[in-house]
Amino acid sequence: MAAAALGQGLPVLCEKPLAYTLAEADALASLAGTGPPRLQLGYMKLHDPAVRQARRELDANRAALRAVEVTVLLPSPAGQLAHAGVVGSGPTGVPTATMEELRLDTARLEERALGPAPEELRRLYTEVALGSLVHDLAVVRLLAGAPERVEHADAWPPDRWPPSVAVDALLPAGVRLTVRWHYLDRYPAYREELRLYHEEGSVTLAFPSPYLLHAPTVLTVTGRDGDAAKVCEHRSTVEAFEEQLAAFHRLVTEGAPPAAGIAEGRADILTCQRIVRCLAARRGIELGGEAAAA
After folding, report:
1. Which secondary-structure segment (H or E) carries 167?
2. For residue 80, which of 188, 200, 235, 293 sits 20 to 30 Å off, Cα-Cα?
3. pLDDT at 242
4. Residues 6+ apart with CB under 8 A from 81
5. What pTM was computed for the model?
């Protein structure tokens, strides 16, 4: 759909993930051309006032980063939406033949990305890595740079879906990234935290559930004040989703560059392929497709 819109010369706000394959991302880049940017990727967290303030805090403090830690505790969708009184969920009224066509198309793209991989690895790639982890990868990239190498990946337990996922990676300048993502269907509260540790303090972002509109992301900055520790907390009820739409308006009317576009989406596809390839190697599975060269 993004390709069809770009082909007609239209600006595009594309939800994540940008695509399932590097080839699709490269095709979008060719359609977009070299003029003003015309595609904004739907990483709403990049427009969160707390994330922007975190970037300013890190830019102002030149102390070297040491480590970045991400923790996600994800309850069931029903649990997250219980407060909203949503009636019905999932696709309704879509013909069975259309759903089957979409399923086969997804399977074809999964094979292009990973080769003839086991179903669990294909689903980890499309549903967990590209479906959820990309939001955190996008924030990490903004604040500390994109992962240069994935050194460890695991998923457990083997009999539950979605599982827990662990990733350890190397960021620019030797900074270590640790990601722990847990789907816990009966966990009582959504939790998503990103912590950055540097030589003189830390910067922590605690994100609310995305289904609680205008709930603030809490930014906590810890630093030195003489011989004492100084802790500052920033909160804003400005909604990241609305800020994302305002940014898209600026892209359309002014040609303003997006916080994330095709290049950033492609980088996340590459990282997700590396994560799944690392996990497959732990299990003695050699992936094909694009991931073989990732």
Report:
1. strand 164-170
2. 235
3. 96
4. 89, 211
5. 0.94
Query: What residues does 229 pair with on adjacent strands?
Result: 224
* Domains in the chain: boundaries: 2-81+93-252+261-293
The two structure tokens encoding residue 49: 């006032």
The predicted-structure confidence for 50-59, as pLDDT tens digits, reads as follows 999 999 999 9
Residue that is written with structure tokens 């033949």 in the block: 97
Would you state the pLDDT for residue 81? 82
What the block records as the tokens of 87 is 């009636």
- Residue 50: how many CB atoms within 10 A of its CB? 23
Given its phi and psi angles, is residue 115 left (phi above 0), alpha (psi -120 to 50 degrees) or beta? left
When pLDDT is averaged across residues 73-82 and rounded to a whole number, the result is: 85
Asked if residues 135 and 18 have their Cβ atoms less than 8 Å apart, the reply is no
Strands 39-41 and 12-14: parallel
Cβ(220)–Cβ(206) below 8 Å: yes
Q: What is the mean pLDDT of residues 114-133?
A: 97
CA distance 132 to 72: 10
Taking CA atoms, 4 is separated from 58, 112, 285, in Å, by: 39, 21, 36
CATH superfamily entry for domain 2-81+93-252+261-293: Dihydrodipicolinate Reductase; domain 2 (3.30.360.10)
Query: Does residue 88 register a pLDDT over 70?
Result: no
Using alpha carbons, list the distances in angstroms from residue 63 to 52, 86, 186, 197: 18, 46, 40, 10
Cβ–Cβ < 8 Å for 28, 2: yes
111: alpha, beta or left? (left if phi > 0; alpha if psi -120 to 50): alpha
